[in-house]
Amino acid sequence: xxxxxxxxxxxxxxxxxxxxxxxxxxxxxxxxxxxxxxxxxxxxxxxxxxxxxxxxxxxxxxxxxxxxxxxxxxxxxxxxxxxxxxxxxxxxxxxxxxxxxxxxxxxxxxxxxxxxxxxxxxxxxxxxxxxxxxxxxxxxxxxxxxxxxxxxxxxxxxxxxxxxxxxxxxxxxxxxxxxxxxxxxxxxxxxxxxxxxxxxxxxxxxxxxxxxxxxxxxxxxxxxxxxxxxxxxxxxxxxxxxxxxxxxxxxxxxxxxxxxxxxxxxxxxxxxxxxxxxxxxxxxxxxxxxxxxxxxxxxxxxxxxxxxxxxxxxxxxxxxxxxxxxxxxxxxxxxxxxxxxxxxxxxxxxxxxxxxxxxxxxxxxxxxxxxxxxxxxxxxxxxxxxxxxxxxxxxxxxxxxxxxxxxxxxxxxxxxxxxxx
Length: 421
Prior knowledge:
Elements: H1 2-19, H2 27-49, H3 60-78, H4 82-102, H5 110-128, H6 130-137, E1 141-142, E2 146-147, H7 157-177, H8 181-200, H9 204-224, H10 227-246, H11 248-258, H12 273-286, H13 290-295, H14 304-307, H15 314-345, E3 346-347, E4 350-351, H16 353-368, H17 381-393
């Protein structure tokens, strides 16, 4: 029964991830989102039921998230915001479910579940929306509308930059870890397909965040990487430079088109006034009430239909919903985790590039969070993965993965016991 419950847990988790990739508006969106949460809770339940849960004390990150969600739920209850109270309770249940998942003796398999869910999503795109994908990828422009931005399974183009840009990092990590040539080829193909979706959606924030993550990785490897990794970096840079030199005109023309640089609303002449105006309004709202500045307004209380405009920044959103104190602590938890993963991933003489890639995933998320509100979220595949990941790598202790099994190495490792053993 242990094996069966574990498999059920993995299938429920995979189904949950897959459903969070569907964003068609209307009742279908609500059904898919609620279905995804239900499947995630079922995954945590069957993981606990398997009997292979390790006895590990809550990490400081789990305490922080738990207290922050509980406090936000109480704020919602005190202010009479029933929806916010319900969301707070839901996040607490999700936190508990993920806590069981990451304590399973085979928790190293979770990353594979996320990757296979991404494979299913990309396969669905190619099956159902290949014409729209390749039309947008070619830079399709409609009169009166401008650049046609691809919306994968109804997902907002900006959000798709987070989801599929993050997916490219997930599969690049697999490329680095794979032993067989066929596995490397498949992982690299998935990286390319995720980047195709990113380009087709003209998700400039996602491209910028990938650029930040890539620049961070290149700089750290150049400074602290092994000789072999530095040589690989020089070789890749040389190949990239040759491509740019010989194809500069074509690359410049395509990127200008796909990035919509000449658009009066999105182009360079617009000056990004739309987003900066939203950020200014959000910051003013954060500081408009001295009490709410510290208590926050409750989870999901900063929706456009409530405050009158979208909050296009996770950091402003955290301050509005959780208050300046808890919002700052949550952000700090992500920053510290990213720094520790990057530092330990490039230890002199003991490089662990899978852990290093974990740090870059957090860097990507932190950079993206300047332009979206999904740093803490479970409604899309990558935000859900980041929530699982930050709990997993911050566990105080965890049993090492079996020899030959892929893992990204938690920040602290030593053996522990199973619950009930």
